[in-house]
C-alpha cells in the first residue's frame, strides 16, 4: 500500500546499474565497540579520524562490524553525495548504522528557503529488489490519500486508487472510499500514540498474514460498512486505464501511469501501441500519483510521445555529479555522457518484453499531463525533457513535488541505501525546478507550465471524462483556456514542517515511500 500525502516526505532516485553485493547482517545495531571491523586476521580495525576518509571499497560488506559499516557509509557519502562538502563529519560511535546514515546529508537550505535534501533513505535489499523487479509489496492493494495528518484537525484517509485483483478491489473498495476506523480506532480524531500506532499498523501491514478490520464509507453511500482485509504480496500494475476518447475534434488517448518500475516497460509498450494504432490526435498522461523510478522508462515514454523527428539529435537529460567528478560518473566510473531519448525496448524484465524492439510512437507536438504534489522525479524529468525539445506540455492539477535529483541504490550488508548523487537538466540546460512544476495561466518563469490549477477529484474514477482533471484537459484542448472550475488550490507545505511523528499518520515502511524516485539506466546501457 502506498501513501500519497503532501505532508509526508518521500525519498529517492535510482539506477538499476552498479549495485554492491549485499551480505548477511543487520544495519541497525546500537552503538559500537572500537574493536572488529576487518575480517582479515591480524589486521588493524578501521577507525574514525576526522577529515580522513578511506576508500569505501575497502570497507564494504564487512557485516559483522557495525563501526565498519558506518565508516563505509561515511566514505561512500563523501565520495558520491551531491553535496558531500556540506555533511558534518561526526564520530559514528554513538549512533546505530541507521541513525548514522540519517546524519550523512546536508542540512543546508535552497535559495527558496526549503531543505535541499528531503529524499534520503534506506530499506532492506530484499524489499527493494522485490519492489523494483516485480512491483510487489505487502499490503491490501489500495493507495491512500492522506489529508490533515497531524492532531487538532479532522484527519481524512481516502482511497486514491487500487490494484486490480487485490484484497481491496475484491472487497469492493475503490477510489473515493473513506477509511473511517482501523481496528476500532477513529481515523479522524485519534490523538494518542497507541491509537496512531494501531492505525499505522492497520493501514501499512508489515506481513502478509496481517488481518485488519476497517469501517469504510463508500463514495456516494449514506451508511458505513465493515470490511476485513487480509494483507498479501501485491503486485503493482503501473500502467492502467489506457483508452481512446472520441471527441468532436478527434481522438484523445488517455493513459494512467503510476510508477516507473521495471514492469512498466511492457505496459507502456502495449499502451502506446494501442494508442498509435488508434491514431490519436492528442494524449492525456495521468501521472498524478507517479513518484518516479527508472529514468530510462521516462526517456522511452518521451520518445514514444514525441517520435523520431522531434527527438533526433536531442538529449533526454544531461546529468552532473558533485564537484569531484566533472567528467566521470562516480558510481559507474564511466565517462559522463547525456541520456538520449531511447527508441528501443531495454528489456528490464525479459520475461515480459525482450530488448531491441522498436518502440511505437505517437508523433505528437503537445501532451496534457495531470499532476499533484505526488508527481515526482522521473515524472518531472519527462515533463522537463519534452519541454526541452519544444513539445508543448500543458499541466492540469497541482504543483509537482520538485525533485531534479537522482541516485543509484547501493547495497551493503542487506540494506539498500539511497542518497542524492546527481542532478539533471534538459536539452536546453534547464533543471531548476526544486520547488516543482507549477501550472499557470500566465507563466513567467521556466518552472511555471501553461495550464490550470485544480484540486484532485476523488469523487470520480480515474479515466472518467467527468473527473475534474481529465475534464479540464479536454476543455483546454477545445478552448485553449482553463474551465471555470479552475481555482487556486492551497498546497500543504512539504518542507520545513515539523509534525511529531508519534501523532501523525504515516507509512512507516520505506517500501511505501518509494516516491520521488528516478532510477538511472543500467551502466551497460548508458550509451
UniProtKB/TrEMBL annotation:
One of its GO terms (molecular function) is endopeptidase activity. It comes from the Bacteria. Residues 251-403 form the Tail specific protease domain. This is Peptidase. InterPro entries: ClpP/crotonase-like_dom_sf, PDZ_sf, Tail-specific_protease. PANTHER family: CARBOXYL-TERMINAL-PROCESSING PEPTIDASE 3, CHLOROPLASTIC, TAIL-SPECIFIC PROTEASE. Keywords: Signal. Residues 1-22 form the signal peptide. One of its GO terms (biological process) is proteolysis. Pfam families: Peptidase_S41 (PF03572). The keyword Signal applies. The lineage of its organism: Bacteria, Pseudomonadati, Pseudomonadota, Gammaproteobacteria, Alteromonadales.
Amino acid at each position: 500500500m502506498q501513501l500519497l500525502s503532501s505532508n509526508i516526505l518521500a525519498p529517492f532516485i535510482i539506477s538499476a546499474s552498479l549495485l554492491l553485493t549485499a551480505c548477511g547482517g543487520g544495519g541497525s545495531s546500537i552503538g559500537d565497540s572500537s574493536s572488529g571491523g576487518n575480517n582479515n586476521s591480524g589486521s588493524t580495525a578501521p577507525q574514525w579520524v576526522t577529515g580522513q576518509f578511506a576508500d569505501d571499497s575497502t570497507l564494504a560488506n564487512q557485516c559483522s562490524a557495525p563501526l565498519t559499516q558506518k565508516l563505509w557509509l561515511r566514505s561512500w557519502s563523501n565520495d558520491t553525495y551531491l553535496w558531500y562538502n556540506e555533511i558534518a563529519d561526526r564520530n559514528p560511535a554513538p549512533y546505530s548504522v541507521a541513525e548514522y546514515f540519517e546524519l550523512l546529508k546536508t542540512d543546508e537550505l535552497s535559495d527558496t528557503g526549503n531543505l535541499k535534501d528531503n529524499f534520503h533513505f534506506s530499506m532492506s535489499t530484499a524489499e527493494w529488489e522485490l519492489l523494483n523487479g516485480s512491483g510487489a509489496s505487502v499490503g491490501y492493494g489500495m493507495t491512500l490519500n492522506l489529508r490533515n495528518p497531524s492532531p487538532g484537525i479532522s484527519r481524512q484517509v481516502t482511497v486514491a486508487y487500487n490494484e486490480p485483483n487485490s484484497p481491496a478491489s475484491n472487497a469492493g473498495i475503490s477510489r473515493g472510499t473513506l477509511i473511517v476506523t482501523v481496528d476500532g480506532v477513529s481515523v479522524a480524531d485519534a490523538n494518542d500514540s497507541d491509537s496512531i500506532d494501531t492505525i499505522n499498523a492497520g493501514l501499512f501491514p508489515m506481513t502478509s498474514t496481517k488481518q485488519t478490520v476497517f469501517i469504510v464509507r463508500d463514495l456516494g453511500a449514506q451508511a458505513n460498512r465493515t470490511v476485513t482485509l487480509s494483507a498479501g504480496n501485491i503486485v503493482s500494475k503501473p500502467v492502467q486505464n489506457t483508452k481512446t476518447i472520441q471527441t468532436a475534434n478527434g481522438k484523445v488517448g488517455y493513459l494512467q501511469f503510476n510508477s516507473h518500475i521495471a514492469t512498466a516497460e511492457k505496459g507502456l509498450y502495449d499502451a502506446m501501441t494501442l494508442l498509435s494504432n488508434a491514431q490519436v490526435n492528442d494524449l492525456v498522461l495521468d501521472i498524478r500519483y507517479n513518484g518516479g523510478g527508472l529514468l530510462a522508462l521516462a526517456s522511452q515514454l518521451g520518445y514514444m510521445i514525441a517520435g523520431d523527428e522531434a527527438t533526433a539529435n536531442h538529449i533526454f537529460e544531461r546529468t552532473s555529479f558533485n564537484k569531484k567528478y566533472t567528467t566521470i560518473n562516480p558510481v559507474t566510473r564511466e565517462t559522463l555522457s547525456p541520456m538520449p531519448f531511447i527508441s528501443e525496448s531495454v528489456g528490464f524484465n525479459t520475461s515480459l518484453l525482450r530488448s531491441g524492439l522498436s518502440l511505437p510512437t505517437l508523433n505528437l507536438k503537445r501532451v496534457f499531463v495531470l499532476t499533484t504534489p505526488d508527481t515526482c522525479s522521473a515524472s518531472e524529468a519527462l515533463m522537463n525533457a519534452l519541454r526541452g525539445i519544444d513539445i508543448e506540455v500543458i499541466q492540469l492539477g497541482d504543483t509537482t513535488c520538485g525533485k531534479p535529483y537522482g541516485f543509484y541504490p547501493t547495497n551493503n550488508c542487506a540494506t539498500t541505501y539511497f542518497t542524492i548523487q546527481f542532478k539533471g537538466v534538459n536539452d536546453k540546460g534547464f533543471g531548476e525546478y526544486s520547488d516543482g512544476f507549477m501550472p499557470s495561466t500566465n507563466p513567467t518563469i521556466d518552472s511555471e507550465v501553461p495550464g490550470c490549477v485544480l484540486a484532485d477529484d476523488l469523487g470520480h474514477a480515474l479515466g472518467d471524462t467527468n473527473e475534474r482533471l481529465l475534464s479540464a484537459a479536454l476543455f483546454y484542448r477545445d478552448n485553449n483556456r482553463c474551465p471555470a472550475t479552475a481555482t487556486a488550490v492551497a498546497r500543504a507545505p512539504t518542507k520545513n514542517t515539523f509534525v511529531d511523528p508519534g501523532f501523525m499518520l504515516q507509512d512507516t515502511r520505506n517500501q511505501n515511500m518509494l516516491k520521488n524516485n528516478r532510477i538511472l539506466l543500467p551502466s551497460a546501457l548508458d550509451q
